[in-house]
Amino acid sequence: MKNALITGITGQDGSYLAELLLEKGYNVYGIWRRKATVDYGNIAHLKDKVNLIYADMTDPASLIAAMKISQADEVYNLAAQSFVATSWDTPLGTADIDALGVTNMLEAIRIVKPEARFYQASTSEMFGLVQEIPQKETTPFYPRSPYGVAKLYGHWITKNYRESYGIFACSGILFNHESERRGIEFVTRKITNAVARIKLGVQDCVELGNMDSKRDWGHSKDYVRAMWLMLQQDKPDDYVIATNETRTVREFVETAFKHVGIDIEWQGSGVDEIGINKENGKTVVKVNKKFFRPAEVDILLGDPTKAETVLGWKREIDFSQLVERMVKNDLALVENEIKIKNITG
C-alpha cells in the first residue's frame, strides 16, 4: 500500500485526486492550513478517510514534518494562490506560495525521502502571450500575470531538482479545468451559479469581463487522473494536459444558459455588449470593465498529444457535459438556499 501526500487537498483538484487515490488503495495524507474555524472545503465527505496534517507552504519546517509523518511515496503539490486576478493584488503572497513554496516542498522531499515521486501543478497561464497555437511542451513561455510568473518559477525549480538531485519530479502543464467544486470566484463557476440564480428568479443579471477570451476547458476529474499517470511512468517528464478545443467566455455563457432553456441574443460590442434572454427581452449578461485583467491572456489552446501517447490519457467529460454538470449542481444548491430561506423566513 502506497502513501500519498497532497498539498491543497481541500481544493477542487485535491478532493478529486484524494478520491482517486483512495479508490486505488493509497493511504492518503493531506496538508491543510490552520484556521480560526475548521473548514474541510471539498473533502468534508472524506475527512474520516484521509489523514490531515497542519502545515504551510511558506514554512519549510512544517513541510519536513509532514514528509516525516506521511513517509509519502508520492507527493502531489496542488497548493497555490490560484486565482489569477488576486495575484495582482497580492503578488508577494502569490510568489511565496506558488514559487518559493514549491522549493520548500522539494527540499522537504530531498531531506526526508529523496526517492519519493513529486508532481507539480503547473499551468497554461505560463504561456500567457502565446508564442504558438496550439501550445505544447516545447512552446516558449510568456506569463502575463504575477500568478503565471510565480508558477513558471515553480515549473523550472521542479525541472532543476529533477536534473540536479535525480528526484522523480514531473510537472503537469494543465489547461483550464473546472468542475462542480470550482470556487465561486472563478469565471466559470460565477457564470453557472448566476445562470442558476437567474433561472430561479433570485438574480437578474451577471457582470463579466472580457467576453472574447478563449480558453481550453476540461473537467478536473479527468485531469487528476493525468497527474497520477505521470507518477506511474518509468521516467519523470512534463506533460501538457488539455482538450485541444478552445471556446470564448461568450460561448461558455451561451452553453450554460442553454442548459436551463434560455437562449441568449447578443447586442452591442466591447464594454457595451449585453446578453438578452430571447424569450422575454430581459438583459441577463453585462460587461464590466473592472473584471478585465491588467494584462490579458487572449487565447489558450493545448495540444495533449504527448500525454495521450505516452500516458495513455484521454478525457471522458466533454465541454457540454462539463457545463451541464456545473449548472445542475448550482441549480440544486440555489434551490436548497431558497428552501432554507423560506423555512427560516
TrEMBL record:
InterPro entries: GDP_Man_deHydtase, NAD(P)-bd_dom, NAD(P)-bd_dom_sf. Transmembrane segments: none annotated. It is an enzyme of class 4 (lyase). Its EC number is 4.2.1.47. CDD domains: GDP_MD_SDR_e (cd05260). The keyword Lyase applies. Its cofactor is NADP(+). Catalyzes the conversion of GDP-D-mannose to GDP-4-dehydro-6-deoxy-D-mannose. This is GDP-mannose 4,6-dehydratase. It comes from Ruminococcus flavefaciens 007c.
